[in-house]
Design a protein that fits this description.
The protein has 332 residues and is an alpha/beta fold. It is built from eleven helices and 15 strands. The strands form three sheets. The chain has a nine-stranded mixed beta sheet, with helices on both faces. The chain has a four-stranded parallel beta sheet with strand order 12-15-13-14, sandwiched between helices. It has a two-stranded antiparallel ribbon with strand order 1-2. The structure holds threonylcarbamoyladenylate and magnesium ion.
Length: 332
């Protein structure tokens, strides 16, 4: 059974989580003026712009330093809005929307003719998602009211191209600083890794990017196990580039049984390691920065990007990551 991610409830009268109602109002103003706004989602923070405004969307690519042929996900306030953006929505895609939206699942569908090609990277499909975060939903609803017509926020992860995705507002500030006029703070992301992406434009569902929603969750809804596309040749999703989500410090995956030997060898060479482990406890006498993550796959995933970011700042020569708990390698 797919576990829906629960979020902290709203803090006060006109505030949801960290972002106040006034912040969301300001965010709507900026979006309507063709400016960028960083917003929290349950997966990672997004760098948002009015998806119907190609000039605004172009600012996303400029701020991230991202190649213009990479398509963006359009975030919607509710599933009923999907038909304004997509055509030929197959029944299995509707089933997925009903089961997982709002939530960490993105559906690729044949786009409506009007949808700007800046958003879709020139493809004839569009990625759609209703995010499961109260601040994002509040923003999307207010934006929809302000716009009147089809209202979607195009948003990739709010990191510079090729870098670790942000899971707190502070991470966004670190990545983009002055390049984004407003960052809505919705706390630490509950999922912590990107949404699962399903291509629904080819007749049968195909998983393009693994994420929090697992093949077995999909199978429970679809009645069949979806095919999983392995990246060959040109990447269809940016997460499949080798250098994607990379820290600046070199990184090595090392299995639990080889970890201590590896660290000892590094020490003899005078190399400083920053270690991320989930089963091996920190070793006394090793001059290493050591971060333990939970062994539970969902908790591990939720903390992974923050840990990588922290280790990237530790001044080590190498980041050593204990190989992942079995189920997590399916997630990440
Ligand atoms: O969890 C998420 O999905 C986060 C939050 C902000 O929603 N967003 C995110 O966006 O991860 P981004 O741009 O970092 O990754 C979006 C992925 C890219 O790999 C892109 O290639 C793929 O979605 N994508 C978007 N539209 C597509 C399309 N029409 N066809 C194929 N892939 C598409
Ligand atoms: Mg990204």
């Amino acid at each position: 059974e797919f576990r829906r991610v629960l979020f902290r409830s709203g803090a006060g009268d006109d505030s949801v989580d960290g972002a106040s109602g006034n912040d969301t109002a300001k965010a709507v103003e900026l979006l309507c003026a063709g400016e960028l706004v960083a917003l929290p989602t349950e997966t990672v923070y997004g760098l948002g712009a009015d998806a119907a405004n190609p000039l605004a969307v172009a600012k996303i690519f400029a701020a991230k330093g991202r190649p213009a042929d990479h398509p963006l996900i359009v975030h919607l306030a509710e599933a009923t809005a999907a038909d304004q953006w997509a055509q030929l929505v197959p029944p299995f895609a509707r089933d997925l929307m009903r089961a997982f939206w709002p939530g960490p699942l993105t559906l690729i569908l044949k786009k409506q003719a009007w949808v700007p090609s800046t958003v879709t990277g020139g493809q004839d499909t569009v990625g759609l998602r209703v995010p499961g975060h109260p601040v994002a939903l509040e923003l999307l609803r207010r934006f929809a009211t302000a716009v009147g017509g089809p209202a979607g926020i195009a948003a990739p992860s709010a990191n510079r191209f090729g870098r670790i995705s942000p899971t707190t507002a502070a991470h966004v500030a670190e990545e983009l600083g002055e390049r984004v006029p407003l960052i809505l703070d919705g706390g630490a992301c509950a999922v912590g890794i990107e949404s699962t992406i399903i291509d629904c434009s080819r007749g049968l569902p195909v998983v393009l990017r693994p994420g929090h929603v697992l093949p077995q969750h999909l199978e429970a809804v679809l009645g069949m196990r979806p095919e999983i596309e392995t990246a060959q040749g040109a990447p269809r999703v940016s997460g499949s580039l080798d250098a994607h989500y990379a820290p600046m410090t070199p990184m090595r995956l090392v299995s639990a049984d080889r970890l201590l030997d590896f660290l000892n060898a590094q020490r003899h060479r005078g190399g400083q390691c920053a270690v991320i482990s989930h089963s091996q406890l920190p070793q006394a006498g090793m001059p290493h920065v050591w971060r333990m993550l939970p062994a539970d796959p969902e908790a591990y995933a939720q903390q992974l990007y923050a840990a990588l970011r922290e280790m990237d700042h530790a001044g080590a020569d190498i980041i050593v990551v204990e190989t992942l708990p079995a189920a997590t390698s399916e997630l990440c």
